[in-house]
Design a protein that fits this description.
Length: 261
Amino acid sequence: MKTITETKPEEGRKENQQPEETAPRLFGGRTNVTLRTAVLLVLLILVLFTAVRFQLWKLPEQEKRPLVLVNPWNPVSETNYRPRLKEIDEGFLADSDCADAAGHLLADCRAAGCRPRILSAYRSVDDQLMLYDEEVQRLVDEGTLPEQAESEVARKIAAPGRSEHELGLALDLVDESYPEMSDRQAQTDTARWLKENAWRYGFILRYPEDAEAETGYVWHPWHYRYVGEDAAGNIHSLGITLEEYLSMFFSEEAAVVYDKS
Ligand SMILES: [Zn+2]
Protein backbone atom coordinates (compact mmCIF):
# COMPACT_ATOMS: atom_id res chain seq x y z
CA MET A 1 0.00 0.00 0.00
CA LYS A 2 2.74 2.38 1.00
CA THR A 3 4.77 1.94 -2.18
CA ILE A 4 1.77 2.42 -4.41
CA THR A 5 0.85 5.77 -2.88
CA GLU A 6 4.48 6.97 -3.02
CA THR A 7 5.12 5.92 -6.60
CA LYS A 8 2.04 7.27 -8.25
CA PRO A 9 2.67 10.99 -7.71
CA GLU A 10 6.26 10.61 -9.01
CA GLU A 11 5.12 8.89 -12.16
CA GLY A 12 2.50 11.54 -12.66
CA ARG A 13 5.10 14.28 -12.30
CA LYS A 14 7.37 12.62 -14.88
CA GLU A 15 4.52 12.39 -17.36
CA ASN A 16 3.75 16.06 -16.89
CA GLN A 17 7.36 17.09 -17.37
CA GLN A 18 8.06 15.07 -20.48
CA PRO A 19 6.68 17.46 -23.11
CA GLU A 20 8.77 20.33 -21.67
CA GLU A 21 11.99 18.25 -21.72
CA THR A 22 11.47 16.76 -25.18
CA ALA A 23 11.27 20.04 -27.07
CA PRO A 24 14.75 21.45 -26.35
CA ARG A 25 16.40 17.97 -26.65
CA LEU A 26 15.41 17.74 -30.29
CA PHE A 27 17.75 20.53 -31.24
CA GLY A 28 20.41 20.85 -28.60
CA GLY A 29 20.14 18.20 -25.86
CA ARG A 30 20.82 14.51 -25.58
CA THR A 31 18.77 13.67 -28.68
CA ASN A 32 21.21 15.61 -30.80
CA VAL A 33 24.11 13.60 -29.41
CA THR A 34 22.22 10.36 -29.99
CA LEU A 35 21.37 11.42 -33.52
CA ARG A 36 24.97 12.36 -34.23
CA THR A 37 26.20 9.04 -32.83
CA ALA A 38 23.68 7.15 -34.95
CA VAL A 39 24.71 9.03 -38.11
CA LEU A 40 28.40 8.43 -37.33
CA LEU A 41 27.70 4.77 -36.69
CA VAL A 42 25.85 4.38 -39.98
CA LEU A 43 28.69 6.19 -41.79
CA LEU A 44 31.27 3.99 -40.08
CA ILE A 45 29.40 0.83 -41.08
CA LEU A 46 29.13 2.12 -44.66
CA VAL A 47 32.84 2.95 -44.79
CA LEU A 48 33.81 -0.43 -43.33
CA PHE A 49 31.49 -2.29 -45.67
CA THR A 50 32.82 -0.39 -48.68
CA ALA A 51 36.42 -0.87 -47.57
CA VAL A 52 35.99 -4.61 -47.20
CA ARG A 53 34.18 -4.85 -50.51
CA PHE A 54 36.67 -2.58 -52.25
CA GLN A 55 39.73 -4.43 -51.00
CA LEU A 56 38.37 -7.79 -51.96
CA TRP A 57 37.07 -6.45 -55.24
CA LYS A 58 40.55 -5.21 -56.03
CA LEU A 59 42.20 -8.49 -55.11
CA PRO A 60 44.79 -9.34 -57.71
CA GLU A 61 43.73 -12.13 -60.07
CA GLN A 62 46.41 -14.34 -58.52
CA GLU A 63 44.67 -14.20 -55.12
CA LYS A 64 41.18 -14.52 -56.55
CA ARG A 65 42.15 -17.45 -58.72
CA PRO A 66 41.88 -20.19 -56.05
CA LEU A 67 38.40 -18.93 -55.15
CA VAL A 68 36.89 -20.16 -58.41
CA LEU A 69 33.55 -21.76 -57.70
CA VAL A 70 32.52 -25.10 -59.11
CA ASN A 71 29.54 -27.01 -57.73
CA PRO A 72 26.48 -28.78 -59.18
CA TRP A 73 25.12 -25.39 -60.33
CA ASN A 74 28.40 -23.91 -61.56
CA PRO A 75 30.23 -26.06 -64.12
CA VAL A 76 33.94 -25.79 -64.88
CA SER A 77 33.08 -24.71 -68.44
CA GLU A 78 31.53 -21.47 -67.13
CA THR A 79 34.77 -20.41 -65.45
CA ASN A 80 37.89 -18.99 -67.10
CA TYR A 81 39.98 -21.25 -64.94
CA ARG A 82 42.72 -23.39 -66.44
CA PRO A 83 44.84 -25.42 -64.02
CA ARG A 84 48.62 -25.01 -64.12
CA LEU A 85 49.51 -28.53 -63.18
CA LYS A 86 52.43 -29.56 -61.03
CA GLU A 87 53.29 -32.83 -59.29
CA ILE A 88 52.62 -33.06 -55.55
CA ASP A 89 53.48 -36.58 -54.51
CA GLU A 90 53.76 -40.02 -56.11
CA GLY A 91 52.47 -38.88 -59.47
CA PHE A 92 49.50 -36.89 -58.20
CA LEU A 93 48.98 -33.55 -59.91
CA ALA A 94 47.44 -30.30 -58.70
CA ASP A 95 47.40 -26.64 -59.66
CA SER A 96 50.82 -25.19 -58.80
CA ASP A 97 49.78 -23.06 -55.77
CA CYS A 98 47.69 -25.90 -54.41
CA ALA A 99 50.53 -28.37 -55.03
CA ASP A 100 53.06 -26.21 -53.12
CA ALA A 101 50.66 -25.73 -50.20
CA ALA A 102 49.82 -29.44 -50.21
CA GLY A 103 53.51 -30.28 -49.92
CA HIS A 104 53.79 -28.24 -46.71
CA LEU A 105 50.49 -29.54 -45.38
CA LEU A 106 51.47 -33.18 -45.86
CA ALA A 107 54.96 -32.68 -44.43
CA ASP A 108 53.61 -31.04 -41.26
CA CYS A 109 50.83 -33.60 -40.94
CA ARG A 110 53.47 -36.36 -41.06
CA ALA A 111 55.69 -34.45 -38.63
CA ALA A 112 52.72 -34.40 -36.22
CA GLY A 113 52.73 -38.20 -36.25
CA CYS A 114 49.93 -38.83 -38.76
CA ARG A 115 50.07 -40.95 -41.89
CA PRO A 116 48.24 -39.03 -44.61
CA ARG A 117 47.76 -40.45 -48.08
CA ILE A 118 46.46 -38.81 -51.23
CA LEU A 119 43.71 -40.86 -52.87
CA SER A 120 42.94 -38.37 -55.59
CA ALA A 121 44.04 -34.91 -56.74
CA TYR A 122 43.67 -33.48 -60.27
CA ARG A 123 41.28 -35.42 -62.50
CA SER A 124 40.52 -34.69 -66.13
CA VAL A 125 36.89 -34.52 -67.21
CA ASP A 126 37.32 -38.01 -68.75
CA ASP A 127 38.66 -39.39 -65.44
CA GLN A 128 35.64 -37.86 -63.72
CA LEU A 129 33.25 -39.39 -66.26
CA MET A 130 34.79 -42.82 -65.74
CA LEU A 131 34.63 -42.52 -61.95
CA TYR A 132 31.02 -41.35 -62.02
CA ASP A 133 29.86 -44.07 -64.43
CA GLU A 134 31.69 -46.78 -62.50
CA GLU A 135 29.95 -45.78 -59.28
CA VAL A 136 26.51 -45.68 -60.95
CA GLN A 137 27.21 -49.11 -62.48
CA ARG A 138 28.33 -50.48 -59.12
CA LEU A 139 25.01 -49.49 -57.52
CA VAL A 140 23.01 -50.84 -60.48
CA ASP A 141 24.89 -54.14 -60.18
CA GLU A 142 23.91 -54.23 -56.51
CA GLY A 143 20.26 -53.95 -57.55
CA THR A 144 19.54 -50.21 -57.39
CA LEU A 145 17.32 -48.84 -60.16
CA PRO A 146 19.39 -46.85 -62.69
CA GLU A 147 17.63 -43.51 -62.02
CA GLN A 148 17.91 -43.94 -58.27
CA ALA A 149 21.56 -44.97 -58.61
CA GLU A 150 22.31 -41.80 -60.57
CA SER A 151 20.68 -39.48 -58.03
CA GLU A 152 22.40 -41.29 -55.17
CA VAL A 153 25.81 -40.99 -56.82
CA ALA A 154 25.19 -37.31 -57.62
CA ARG A 155 25.11 -36.51 -53.90
CA LYS A 156 28.56 -38.01 -53.40
CA ILE A 157 30.47 -37.66 -56.66
CA ALA A 158 30.47 -34.61 -58.89
CA ALA A 159 29.12 -35.11 -62.38
CA PRO A 160 31.72 -34.78 -65.16
CA GLY A 161 32.43 -31.11 -65.83
CA ARG A 162 31.35 -30.12 -62.31
CA SER A 163 34.15 -31.47 -60.14
CA GLU A 164 36.66 -29.38 -58.20
CA HIS A 165 39.17 -32.11 -58.97
CA GLU A 166 39.10 -30.90 -62.58
CA LEU A 167 40.42 -27.54 -61.30
CA GLY A 168 43.42 -29.16 -59.65
CA LEU A 169 42.38 -27.44 -56.42
CA ALA A 170 40.97 -30.42 -54.55
CA LEU A 171 42.61 -33.32 -52.74
CA ASP A 172 41.08 -36.44 -51.28
CA LEU A 173 43.17 -37.12 -48.19
CA VAL A 174 42.85 -40.23 -46.08
CA ASP A 175 44.74 -42.01 -43.34
CA GLU A 176 47.08 -44.84 -44.31
CA SER A 177 45.39 -47.03 -41.70
CA TYR A 178 41.96 -46.57 -43.29
CA PRO A 179 42.29 -45.52 -46.95
CA GLU A 180 38.54 -45.28 -47.58
CA MET A 181 36.33 -42.39 -48.61
CA SER A 182 33.59 -42.93 -46.06
CA ASP A 183 32.26 -41.12 -42.99
CA ARG A 184 34.44 -43.26 -40.73
CA GLN A 185 37.46 -41.49 -42.21
CA ALA A 186 36.59 -38.59 -39.88
CA GLN A 187 37.70 -40.66 -36.89
CA THR A 188 41.26 -41.16 -38.15
CA ASP A 189 44.26 -39.20 -36.83
CA THR A 190 44.87 -37.67 -40.24
CA ALA A 191 41.28 -36.42 -40.61
CA ARG A 192 41.34 -34.95 -37.10
CA TRP A 193 44.64 -33.17 -37.73
CA LEU A 194 43.46 -31.85 -41.09
CA LYS A 195 40.19 -30.55 -39.66
CA GLU A 196 42.14 -28.53 -37.09
CA ASN A 197 45.05 -27.38 -39.22
CA ALA A 198 44.37 -27.49 -42.96
CA TRP A 199 43.22 -23.85 -43.03
CA ARG A 200 46.71 -22.70 -42.02
CA TYR A 201 47.93 -24.00 -45.41
CA GLY A 202 45.03 -22.51 -47.38
CA PHE A 203 42.77 -25.58 -47.43
CA ILE A 204 39.19 -25.97 -46.25
CA LEU A 205 37.02 -28.99 -45.56
CA ARG A 206 34.89 -28.28 -48.59
CA TYR A 207 31.81 -30.37 -47.81
CA PRO A 208 31.12 -30.20 -44.09
CA GLU A 209 28.34 -32.02 -42.27
CA ASP A 210 24.80 -30.69 -42.75
CA ALA A 211 25.72 -28.29 -45.57
CA GLU A 212 24.30 -30.19 -48.53
CA ALA A 213 21.83 -27.39 -49.33
CA GLU A 214 24.71 -24.94 -49.86
CA THR A 215 27.43 -27.15 -51.30
CA GLY A 216 25.33 -29.71 -53.16
CA TYR A 217 27.12 -32.65 -51.52
CA VAL A 218 26.90 -34.73 -48.40
CA TRP A 219 29.66 -34.69 -45.81
CA HIS A 220 33.10 -35.56 -47.27
CA PRO A 221 35.55 -35.67 -44.34
CA TRP A 222 38.37 -36.42 -46.83
CA HIS A 223 37.85 -33.76 -49.51
CA TYR A 224 40.03 -30.68 -49.02
CA ARG A 225 39.87 -27.67 -51.29
CA TYR A 226 42.62 -25.09 -51.75
CA VAL A 227 41.26 -21.51 -51.53
CA GLY A 228 44.36 -19.62 -50.34
CA GLU A 229 45.35 -18.79 -46.78
CA ASP A 230 43.22 -15.65 -46.23
CA ALA A 231 39.99 -17.20 -47.43
CA ALA A 232 40.71 -20.48 -45.64
CA GLY A 233 41.32 -18.62 -42.36
CA ASN A 234 38.05 -16.70 -42.69
CA ILE A 235 36.00 -19.69 -43.77
CA HIS A 236 37.42 -21.79 -40.93
CA SER A 237 36.91 -19.18 -38.20
CA LEU A 238 33.41 -18.26 -39.37
CA GLY A 239 32.48 -21.92 -39.76
CA ILE A 240 30.91 -21.35 -43.18
CA THR A 241 31.04 -22.91 -46.64
CA LEU A 242 32.79 -21.51 -49.70
CA GLU A 243 29.38 -20.67 -51.15
CA GLU A 244 28.47 -18.66 -48.04
CA TYR A 245 31.86 -16.94 -48.01
CA LEU A 246 31.52 -15.87 -51.64
CA SER A 247 27.99 -14.62 -51.08
CA MET A 248 29.19 -12.54 -48.13
CA PHE A 249 32.14 -10.89 -49.84
CA PHE A 250 31.90 -11.34 -53.58
CA SER A 251 28.54 -10.26 -54.96
CA GLU A 252 29.29 -11.11 -58.58
CA GLU A 253 30.31 -14.68 -57.80
CA ALA A 254 27.46 -14.98 -55.32
CA ALA A 255 24.96 -14.34 -58.11
CA VAL A 256 26.34 -17.45 -59.76
CA VAL A 257 26.43 -19.37 -56.49
CA TYR A 258 22.75 -18.99 -55.81
CA ASP A 259 21.50 -19.42 -59.34
CA LYS A 260 20.56 -23.01 -58.67
CA SER A 261 18.00 -23.25 -61.46
ZN1 LIG B 1 37.25 -35.18 -53.67
